Amino acid sequence: MELRPDIEPDLKTAASRYPEILKLILDYTAHVDLAGDENLIAYQKLESSLQQLTQKDISQFNMEWWEEEGAEVLAFRIALPDPVKLNDLTPEELEEITFRIENPVIINKDWEEQTFEEQFSLYLDDYYLQFLKLNSQ
Fold first, then answer.
1. What is the Cα–Cα distance from 108 to 94, expressed in whole angstroms?
2. What separation in angstroms does the CA of 125 have from each of 8, 45, 100, 121?
3. Is 52 helix (H, G, I), strand (E, B) or coil?
4. What is the pLDDT along the chain (137 residues), one digit of tens a residue?
5. Virtual CA dihedral for 48, 52, 58, 64, nearest 10 degrees?
6. Residues with Cβ < 8 Å from 41, sequence gap 6 or more?
7. Exposed, middle or buried: residue 40 (CB in 10 Å: 0-12, 13-18, 19+)?
8. What is the pTM (predicted TM-score) of this model?
9. What value, to the nearest 5°, has the Cα angle with vertex 79 and ends 109 and 50?
């Protein structure tokens, strides 16, 4: 089932933001590897840059990405705009969102051969969970 555009994740915006966000994260990591960041000045600069770029609360993300899913997935999660609040969800839409959370799309191609959407299709569960939480209030 196709969902309304207001429900679907805004992958176009995420794709446009992604390269810059990934570069900021990797540059920060390289800086920390070379010079450290004991006083967290570089981290605060990174957080500020990411917040300006996305208008998102960056404190919700673990910037120590190497302990979790990797810089690419972190950059995607930050780049993806937050879901919006809607007042008229249908039972069919709720069913489709639940289906998507429980049945992520697995792409059987090499990473380089995949589109942006295919590369990150496995990581949309957080978006849909956030959407459901926002729209159940």
1. 27
2. 12, 29, 7, 9
3. helix
4. 899 999 999 999 999 999 999 999 999 999 999 999 999 999 999 999 999 999 999 998 887 766 678 899 999 999 999 999 998 999 999 999 999 999 988 889 998 999 999 999 999 999 999 999 999 87
5. -60
6. none
7. exposed
8. 0.91
9. 140
